[in-house]
Prior knowledge:
alpha+beta
Amino acid sequence: MFKFAKQREALWPVDLVAADRAMDADGNLVTHRVFIRYRLMTRDELAEANEATTRITAERLREARGNDASANLVELMAVSREVEQRTYDDLLARITGWREGDIADEEGNPLAFDRGIVASLCEDTANYQALLRGLYAASRGAQAKN
């Protein structure tokens, strides 16, 4: 039986990079598969995220019109920061947990879910990108399966 849930969540596999940045024999970063629980984005929320990026960019370019080229570059960098902050904030809000035992401290003791730990993971660009890809994949994949 299909069970409808207004606010859907999914546990989704994500490959995180180890803190020691170890490399395998082929020179690739060693990753560890963990399962992250996401509050999924709806089709409208996915579209809004794309529209927001376009809207913010257009607004900043409109504001910069008439300025010199270096001012336009500064405006574009500000747009990038603004969009990135919005994306980061949304990602942190949508990660609601992880599979028990998947994330541990340096001694190997399992860590309970904590947004501070998620924020620390996001300080590593590779992990931030992996978590963000996981959110989009879970949202799109879960939609495709329903």
